[in-house]
Amino acid sequence: MPVDQVTQNALRHVAHHMADAARVETLKHFRTSLAADNKCDDSYFDPVTEADRAAERAMRDVLAEHRPDDAILGEEYGATSGESGLTWVLDPIDGTRGYISGTPTWGVLIAVSNENGPIYGIIDQPYIGERFEGGFGRAELAGPHGQRPLGVRQGRALSEATVLTTFPEVGTAQERAAFEAVANRARLTRYGMDCYGYALLAAGQVDLVIEAGLNAYDIQAPIAVIEAAGGIVTDWSGGPAHNGGRALAAATPALHAEAMAILQAAL
Q1: Fewest beta carbons less than 10 Å away: which of 15, 139, 233, 257?
Q2: How many structural domains does the chain have?
Q3: Can you name the residues that pair with 94 across neighbouring β-strands?
Q4: Which of 109, 124, 149 is the last residue of a domain?
Q5: Among residues 84, 109, 98, which one has the least CA distance to residue 217?
Q6: Among the three residues 122, 149, 176, which one is the final residue of a domain in this structure?
Q7: For residue 141, what are the β-bridge partners?
């Protein structure tokens, strides 16, 4: 479903309004004695806080006022149906483990998707004060140093590349081994960052992000931003990644193909 210019402008305006609203709620609680609940059993810690819930509620309030006919998929409050053919995919705090630890690289993820996947996205870093935007002909970073275009880094082979993933264990033991097969051939491997790793790829600072066990709300905004910046994001076999699972984000098609061949051989 094509989106006309007027609708694009309206969607961008609402997305930035939502990001502003989420900033208020997340910063209100950051580096306080905020309690964290565990979504899972005692064998695994998957934290959620009132900051997560409040940020998603704030974004949903914006949509209720400005885009009531759109569907919503949010991490904390699930799916809400719509009639417009567009879905907002929201992660109110991507990196809650980092958030409750006081690290600054957690973010807010906002995507607009149609039946084919994300068409626009924002990766917002409230504490750092950076906002990465991609889609509708835009690929921009606004932050402490002003506004500038986003663009992936070109011309690096895997032997020269920097690769990121959030958790050292990546996913299953087999998925971890596959990731390490790629990482062992890269120049530099770094861990952590959550959604900020994808933002750094779009900004031309790193070359690969490889993850597994994702949900749709973890990856849709990063897909939109990275693709707008000239990069490529698929699953580990080259298919769509917007529904979650495994993701391979690369600065260039050549680097993507090199990494994917290694992942496939290891699985």
Answers
A1: 257
A2: 2
A3: 107
A4: 149
A5: 109
A6: 149
A7: 132, 148
Q: Identify whether the C-beta of residue 25 lies closer than 8 Å to the C-beta of residue 55.
A: yes
27-66 pLDDT tens trace? 999 999 999 988 877 777 889 999 999 999 999 999 999 9
Dist. CA 194–CA 209, nearest whole Å: 10
SS3 42: coil
- As a whole number of angstroms, the distance between CA 119 and CA 7 comes to 12
Amino acid of residue 135 = G
Q: Amino acid identity, residue 246? A: R
Is residue 109 left, alpha or beta, with left meaning phi > 0 and alpha meaning psi from -120 to 50? Answer: beta
CATH of the domain at 121: 3.30.540.10
Q: Which residue's structure tokens are 């305006």?
A: 13
3-state secondary structure 187-217: CEEEECCCHHHHHHHHCCCCCEEEEEEEEHH
Contacts of 80 (CB under 8 A, 6+ apart): 60, 71, 72, 73
Cα torsion 182, 183, 184, 188 to 10°: value is 140
Whether residue 162 sits in one domain with residue 144: no
d(Cα 183, Cα 185) in Å, to the nearest integer? 5
**Rounded mean pLDDT, 255-267:** 97
pTM: predicted TM-score of the whole model, two decimal places: 0.97
In this structure, the number of other CB atoms found within 10 A of the CB of residue 155 comes to 9
Are 15 and 136 found together in one domain?
yes
Angle between helices 195-202 and 216-228 (to 10 degrees): 10
**CATH at 193:** 3.40.190.80
Tens digit of each residue's pLDDT (9 = 90 or more) over 11-32: 999 999 999 999 999 999 999 9
109 with 164, same domain: the answer is no
Closest CA to 136 of 262, 261, 1, 11: 11
Rounded distance, CA 196 to CA 149, Å?
Answer: 17
Q: Domain range spanning residue 75?
A: 5-149
